[in-house]
Amino acid sequence: MDRAEPARRQPASSRPVDETTDRRIGVLFVCLGNICRSPLAEGAFHHVLAERGLADRFRVDSAGISDFHEGEPPDRRAIAVAKARGIDISGQRSRPVQTGDFLDFDWILAMDGANLTALDGRAPDHATAHVGLLLEVAEGRPAAVPDPYYDGPAEFDAVLDMVTAAAERLADRLTQAVDQAAGGVPPKRRST
Ligand code: 4NP
User: Fold this and answer.
1) Which of 61, 101, 104, 147 is catalytic?
2) d(CA 33, CA 56)
3) What is the residue extent of each domain of the chain?
4) 0.90 exceeded by pTM
């Protein structure tokens, strides 16, 4: 599958989100616990979209491979580093990835290779989402966002740096891909 192309969509009747009216780009960030990295990625992406006036073009969420922390807010260290940059993630609640996510979202972006392997193993045959590593899709480098759970504030801050840089590039890439698919930019012609 070419992971740079926008997802093909399911008929609206099989989807919880009404695709006849909802043309937003769906992006789901995924890590293991959904209390450290993916909530920071979700918060950073919301922040970038708001700064650029793009919020209404996207539908953004995050989820965990595990249900270890289901219903819990993000880790207090994640909330603190985000708050220091004016990003409020305290209202988020952890939830596990569900089968329907593979139909509801255009992009499911994993923080590390283990998350990606787990996602690939859970994707239903009729999945329409593009599933990839966040840093590979955003920046073209197949690197992981390291898990800061057993570390301190400096590592949480470093994660926020990484996901913020990735969020900037992701906003560029996904809006360009959709605008091109909509015919905004004509395809290049080969000169013969
Ligand atoms: P996250 O970090 O995947 O970035 O949310 C972790 C959170 C919790 C655990 C591991 C990683 N845990 O083992 O509970």
Assistant:
1) 147
2) 27
3) 19-178
4) no
| Contact indicator for 136, 142 with CB cutoff of 8 Å | yes
Q: What is the pLDDT of residues 44-103, one digit of tens each?
A: 999 999 999 999 999 999 999 999 999 999 999 999 999 999 999 999 999 999 999 999
Q: List phi, psi (to 5°) of 170.
A: -65, -40
The helix, strand and coil proportions of the chain, stated in percent and rounded to the nearest 5, come to 40, 10, 45
DSSP per-residue letters across 33-60: SSSSHHHHHHHHHHHHHHHHT-GGGEEE
Alpha helices in the chain, H assignment, sequence order? 37-52, 76-84, 101-104, 113-122, 134-139, 153-181
Question: What phi, psi does 29 have (nearest 5°)?
Answer: -95, 135
CATH code linked to domain 19-178: 3.40.50.2300
Atom of ligand 1 nearest to the CA of 38: 4
Give me the pLDDT at residue 179, please. 78
pLDDT digits (tens, 9 = 90+) for 96-145: 999 999 999 999 999 999 999 999 999 999 999 999 999 999 999 999 99
Test site for ligand 1: of 29, 34, 35, most ligand atoms within 8 A of the Cβ: 35
What's the pLDDT at 21? 61
* Residue 123: exposure state from Cβ atoms within 10 A (0-12, 13-18, ≥19): middle
